[in-house]
Amino acid sequence: MTDPFLFYRELHLAGDPTYRAPRDAVDSWRELAEQARAELARMGFPVTVFSYEMSELQPVGGYVLVHEMEPFGVALDWRAPVRNSRSYIEKAIAQEREGLIRYVSAATEIITKAMFDVLDEASFRVLIDHQERDYYLYRVLEAPRFPIK
Predict the structure, then answer these.
(1) What would the pLDDT profile of 104-114 be if each residue is shown by its tens digit?
(2) Sheet strands side by side (includes 73-79)
(3) Per-residue pLDDT band at 55 (split at 50, 70, 90)
(4) Mean pLDDT, to the nearest integer, of 116-124?
(5) Angle made by CA atoms 1, 70, 39, in degrees to the nearest 5
(6) How many Cβ atoms from other residues are within 10 Å of residue 51's Cβ?
(7) pTM for the whole thing?
(8) What one-character DSSP code corresponds to residue 64?
(9) How far apart are CA 143 and CA 119, in angstroms?
């Protein structure tokens, strides 16, 4: 498993915001993402694995993201079906942060944290990485050395 934090130095030295991690690192992250997906599915969380940079539409439900670019590595997230509704989109465009938007945001964090806690309990190496303001990246860093069978 390739440590995603190794590539921040390369990113800043390159001075290129489109810098991508090397293919072997991304391949190791895809393998890790599949292991996380399998464990989450085993515990009742059906999730999708996809590359953040390659997807124009995020799937509904849980997913394991592979970030080829900053923030690099593997992360968990959740997309509530209501985010595709006309009401939600109108509120988001109008920047109405109360009511539905706040509720969906809170529910997303609760569900993402639950998936994170399942992987933590299964001995995956995980990290809650503060990104900005109230946004956290729920990282998966390494599969367990001794999986629970």
Answers:
(1) 999 999 999 99
(2) 47-51, 61-67, 73-79, 135-142, 125-132
(3) low
(4) 97
(5) 40
(6) 15
(7) 0.88
(8) E
(9) 9
Q: Which amino acid is at 133?
A: R
Torsion, Cα 30 32 33 37, to 10 degrees, reads 140
Instruction: Please compute the mean of the pLDDT values over residues 5-14 and round it to a whole number.
Output: 74
| Per-residue confidence band for 44, with pLDDT thresholds at 50, 70 and 90 | very high
Cβ-contact 37, 47 below 8 angstroms: yes
- Residue 135, classified by CB atoms within 10 Å of its CB into exposed (0-12), middle (13-18) or buried (19+), is exposed
- What is the C-alpha radius of gyration for the chain, rounded to an integer number of angstroms? 16
Quickly count: other Cβ atoms within 10 Å of residue 41's Cβ: 12
Encode 120-131: b = buried (16+ Cβ within 10 Å), e = exposed.
Answer: bebebebbebee
The DSSP element (H or E) to which 135 belongs, if any, is strand 135-142
